[in-house]
Amino acid sequence: APCLPLLLLAACWGGGADGHGVHPLSRIAIHHARVALDASAAVRALPKLLGSRGEDTAWVTVEFKIPRASDGDWIGVFSPSNFNGSTCPGSHGSGPGPAICSAPIKYQFTNYSSGYNKSATGALKFQLINQRQDFSFGFFTGGLSNPTLVAVSNRIVFANPKAPVYPRLALGKTWNKMTVTWTSGYGISEAHPFVEWGMKGSHPVHAAADTVTFGRESLCGEPARSVGWRDPGFIHTAFLKNLSPEKEYYYKIGHRLRNGQVIWGKPKSFRAPPYPGQKSLQRVVIFGDMGKDERDGSNEYQNYQPASLNTTDALIRDLDNTDIVFHIGDISYANGYLSQWDQFTQQVEPITSRVPYMMARSASSSYFVL
Ligand SMILES: *[C@@H]1O[C@H](CO)[C@@H](O)[C@H](O)[C@H]1NC(C)=O
Ligand SMILES: *[C@@H]1O[C@H](CO)[C@@H](O)[C@H](O)[C@H]1NC(C)=O
Ligand SMILES: *[C@@H]1O[C@H](CO)[C@@H](O)[C@H](O)[C@H]1NC(C)=O
Ligand SMILES: *[C@@H]1O[C@H](CO)[C@@H](O)[C@H](O)[C@H]1NC(C)=O
C-alpha cells in the first residue's frame, strides 16, 4: 500500500472568526458615493500598458494630489475602468439612482504614502493581475463610509486582457486522468480552447476543453448581484487521459482564434500519480480556511487575511516535496465580491499549476463560495 505521511498545515482563524468577518470591500458604502470631481485634484497611473512581455501580474505607480489632505482620503482600483453611473444595472446614464454601482477591486488609503498629510501629494504602488478588463483609479475623500469621488485616473490595460491564465490541476475520477481548468476572456464563439500536452520527450497531443460562465442573474443575493458583481470571464476545463504512472508531463493551455492564430498560456508540467497499489511515497498537504490577501498591502494593510500569503508561500517553497494538495473548504472568502476569485486563483497558481489541487466543501462553503 502507498505510504501517506500527512503534513497538516493549519491555517485556522480561531473558529474562522476573521475569515467570516467583514470583508474590507464591504466597508465601502459605494451605493452612497457622491461624485464631485475637483479640477484641482488629480490622480494618474503608470505605466499605461501592462504585461507587454506576457506577464499576468504587474506593478503600477499611482500619483495623486489634492488641495487639502485628510485621513479619510483613499484610492480605489476599478476594473472595468468605466465605473460611472452609466454602468448601473437598468440605468440609462441619468436620473436618480446611485452614482457608482460597482465596488473597487481593492483600495489603499492615501496616507500610506509618507508625508501625504502635509504635502497633500503622494504616490502608491499597486500590484495588478490580469483580470480580463482594463483598470482606472478613483480618488475619494470622506473615508469608506461617506465616499466622495474627486478625481479619476487615466485608464491602463494589460497587453492581452483575454489571455488564458491561472491553470489549476485536479485528479480525474480515476488515477490516470488529470483535469486542467483555467480562466480566459475568450468565449467559444471567438476561439477554440485546448491543452497541448504530452509525456516529456514525446510528441504533444491536443485535448479540447469545455467552456462555462455565469451571469449576474444566476447569483442569489447581495453583494454578488449588485456592487460585488464582476464578469467572471470564461472557465475552461480539459481532461488529460491515459496517463502513465509517475511520468512527467508538460502542458500548455491555449486558444485557437478563428484566423488560426493560437494564444498560449505559459508552459507548465506535472507528475502523474502512481498506479493504485504501487509502492510509492505520496506526500499530501491538507488545509482549510485560507482566504486571500494583497501583496501590495491594499485593503487595510493586510489586516484581513495576511496569513493566507504566508500559507501560500510555505506551500510554494515545499512544492518539490508535495504530490497533492487538499483545500478542504472555505476557499477565498470572497463574500460576494467576484473580483476576489481571480485574485485567489492568481495567488495559488504556482501550486495549482504543478500539483493536483483538490477542493472540498466545508460547513460554510455554501455561503462563501461567491
Ligand atoms: C490613515 O487613514 C486611515 C483612515 O482614516 C486611518 O485609520 C489610519 O490610522 C491612517 N494612517 C496613518 C498612518 O495616518
Ligand atoms: C461615463 O463614462 C463614459 C466613458 O468614460 C462616458 O462616455 C460617459 O459619458 C459617462 N457617463 C456618465 C453618466 O457620466
Ligand atoms: C501627519 O501624520 C503623522 C503620523 O500620523 C502625524 O504625526 C502628524 O501630526 C500629521 N501631520 C499633520 C499636519 O496632520
Ligand atoms: C508572514 O509574512 C509576513 C510578510 O512576509 C512576515 O512579516 C511575517 O513574519 C510572516 N508571519 C509568519 C507567522 O511567518
From TrEMBL:
Protein's UniProt name: Purple acid phosphatase
Keyword set, alphabetical order: Secreted, Signal
Cross-referenced InterPro entries: Fn3_PAP, Metallo-depent_PP-like, PAPs_N, Purple_acid_Pase-like_N
MF annotations from Gene Ontology: acid phosphatase activity; metal ion binding
Signal peptide: 1-19
Top-level division of the source organism's lineage: Eukaryota
GO cellular component, one term: extracellular region
Purple acid phosphatase N-terminal domain: residues covered: 165-271
Purple acid phosphatase Fn3-like domain segment(s): 43-160
